[in-house]
Amino acid sequence: MESIALTDINGIRHVYEPDDILWFFEETRPGLVRIINTERQLATFALDSRQTAVLKKELKASGSPIWFGAFQGERLPLNKLPNTRGLGGLSAGSSAVIGHHELIRSGALHDATPHDVEYLTGTMGLKTIIDLRTDLEIAAKPDPAIPGVQWVHVPLLDTWEYEEIGLRTLTESGLEEMRNQGPEMMVRLYRKIVGAPEGIRGLKKFFQILLAKRSGSVLWHCTQGKDRTGVAAAILERILGCDAQVVEQDYLQTNPCLHMQEDQTEAWLTKKLHLSQKTARDFSFLFEARPEFLQAAWDIIDTEFGGFAAYLENQLGLDQEKQAQLKRMYTC
């Protein structure tokens, strides 16, 4: 294949050999293509759909080891892990993206099939698992032991703070309270994740692990991959330079991933607790990421801790140099 000459959106001409290209992907906005070369330099080009299709076909035919397509929060192709997603390709400002095969967010891993484990350790290069769940959750459904992968327990809630919601499903009065106050309960949960001592300790350790990583990718998870995992991901994405829209879009991507689990839970509530299908749907908040839940975390950071920058430095121990180090490690 001949050299590729393209002019980027800033008017700068680039000449690539196929072997020079590390990553080729189409932006979420139609007509934009990003290329990252082997020196981790990013350029954005305005190409129409025909030009993009032709160029992609030629690059694939070249046989060069090019990474096509940014996950951008999309679900990984796994069998039994519905909400396991790579952060690679998410826009981290005007001239950077989160690197591929570096950061993975997920729900619990106890259902992982051999194929799932092979994909995570092989294709995604998984080396570290950070389990954000409580002791009780882990005892009930422990992660599989994966050779060559380090497992670290970093709880973001104590057992009672988490089970306060789950225990309400055991009584009729508790269910009624959840039905009427469920979203408010979730708002309180998010406030605790970022504001309670257990949450702050856990988030601080979470970032210490990310800063200490030397090889492979890091996966963090709770039970559904929605609340604790979502908050940790959102804070990290803000540090890496993602704007508010990108952060929220990635957070809300949980919803289509968990749609099947929500259907299964409605069926369980209907059958076991003899609720009507309409009443069962009132509990959808348990399986939904909602903007107001995440906003509750941002609000408590602003009102109780002096804003995001102060929270990072004073509560999580992330000064400007450590934030810059995270950017160097996880964006390109």
From TrEMBL:
Gene Ontology molecular function: phosphoprotein phosphatase activity
One family name in Pfam for this protein: Y_phosphatase3
Matching Gene3D superfamilies: Protein tyrosine phosphatase superfamily
Top-rank lineage group of the source organism: Bacteria
TM stretches of this protein: none
Similarity remark: Belongs to the protein-tyrosine phosphatase family.
Name of this protein: Tyrosine specific protein phosphatases domain-containing protein
Species for this entry: Faecalibaculum rodentium
Lineage of origin: Bacteria, Bacillati, Bacillota, Erysipelotrichia, Erysipelotrichales
